[in-house]
Amino acid sequence: MKTGANANIGQRLKAIEPYVQGDENFFANYGDGLSDVPLPAMPERFRESNAIASLLLVQPTAGVDIVYAGSEGMVKEIRPITRSDIWINGGFLAMRNEIFHYIQPGEELVREPFQRLIDKQSLLAHKYGGFWQCTDTFKDKQHLEELNQGAAPWKVWNHTAASQADCTCQLLEQPKEQPTVVSAYV
Q1: Burial level of 10, CB count in 10 A (0-12/13-18/19+)?
Q2: Structural domain tally of the chain?
Q3: Greatest distance between any 2 Cα atoms in the chain
Q4: Structural domain includes residue 126
């Protein structure tokens, strides 16, 4: 469905509302990421919960570092973001039709609507530590093309057994000390 180049995720989701009205649950993704996440596990956990929406959380794959500095400005530690406890929105979503009651015109899905769900304890996080990669940059595209020449991790139909051991699911709560980083890619 064409929603326009300038539509945000909330607007794009709202545009498909008439097409999913008869369905209790539906699934969506941003379309710019590849993963080997065992998809049956995410909807199953979502259906068993009382959450209105669920999103896949993954660890960032960007080649950036986190720098910790003290109040005096001296650097205390530098660590790759891939070795942190930061989780980002992986762009795979499971939702109940009720989600449309939380999206107002022009709102970005992960801002106001998801905040309303967090306040109600109705947003479920599906943490996944396996393969996930987005294609936001030319470098990302090159990396995925290289992986595709061999045993591409997202081609789960080529794998003998998928493990669900590194999946966890939890309700997202209002951040206390360290926030969960959530990002949207269009």
Answers
A1: buried
A2: 1
A3: 58
A4: yes
Side-chain-side CA neighbours of 41 within 13 Å: the count stands at 16
> What pLDDT is attached to residue 186?
34
Share of the chain above pLDDT 90, in %: 50
* Residue 53 · residue 92 · CB < 8 Å: no
The answer to whether 38 and 164 are in contact (CB under 8 A) is yes
Segments forming the whole domain that contains residue 92: 9-59+87-171
pLDDT tens readout for residues 104-130: 999 999 999 999 999 999 999 999 999
100 assigned to some structural domain:
yes
Distance from C-alpha of 120 to C-alpha of 102, rounded to nearest angstrom:
11
| Alpha carbons 156 and 3: distance in angstroms, whole number | 30
- The CATH number for 15's domain is 3.90.550.10
| Long-range contacts of residues 22-29, Cβ cutoff 8 Å, at least 24 apart | 23/97, 24/96, 24/97, 25/94, 25/95, 25/96, 25/97, 26/94, 26/95, 26/97, 27/92, 27/93, 27/94, 27/95, 28/93, 28/95, 29/91, 29/92, 29/93
Q: Is residue 135 part of a domain?
A: yes
